[in-house]
Amino acid sequence: MAVSKLQPASAILEAYAAGQRDFGENYVQELTRKAEQLAHLEGLRWHLIGHLQSNKAKAVANLATSVQTIDSVRLGQELGKRRRLEPPLDVLVEVNVSGEESKSGCMPVDLAEVLTAVEAEPTLRLRGLLTVPPASADPAAAGPHFAELRRLRDAHGGRARLPDLSIGMSADLEVAVAHGSTCVRIGSAIFGERAAARSTP
Asked: Which value, in Å, is the radius of gyration of the alpha carbons in the chain?
């Protein structure tokens, strides 16, 4: 997945022309704006990979192909209530494996309840799990966190129930693939530095 957060529509057009179809956005307002700008592109698929507040579920429920950051029963229910299109919206549950207070995601102890709530919504389709490991200069440091997410997947129904693991970004994609990632979220390795970073002195 190409992470297009803070990238201009022109950069997405260039990636689309090269064959890329799946784009991840972190912010609801930005996703909504780009989806409108690029609505003419056939086969383009938007994925929300940033934290989603319940009061913004309506804005993305019928725009996105997937929402990968469900972290509560309430959010799953709200998203399910707002989805009107067919097919069902693909959903991944974000798990805060590291326990960092600054990270989004449900706690592992709450995972079973959130998974059950998503499956109870006929307009949603449970696909898997996502986690973001603590920042580190050493890509290998992400390994234990990816392994723990895989362990949680195995403990909650395995691949049959949760086929997708959304783990890994530009810096640690090889580690993520080794731990069974089915979706690596690649931003800087595709687009280069984000606009905000480029403008920093």
From this structure: 16
Residue type, 168: G
> Alpha-carbon distance 7 to 196, whole Å?
9
Q: 57-67, pLDDT tens digit by residue?
A: 999 999 999 99
Amino acid at 51: H
Say whether pLDDT at 200 is over 60: no
Q: What is the mean pLDDT of residues 67-89?
A: 97
User: What CATH number is associated with residue 117?
Assistant: 3.20.20.10
Quick: pLDDT tens for 92-103: 999 999 999 989
The secondary structure of 162-190 as a DSSP string is --EEEEEEGGGHHHHHHTT-SEEEBSHHH
Q: 147: domain range?
A: 2-198
* Sequential DSSP letters for 94-163: EB-SS--TTS-SB-GGGHHHHHHHHHT-TTEEEEEEE--PPP-S-GGGGHHHHHHHHHHHHHTTHHHH--
Q: Is the Cβ–Cβ distance between 63 and 70 less than 8 Å?
A: no
SS3 (DSSP) at 36: helix
The number of distinct structural domains making up the chain is 1
pTM for this one? 0.93
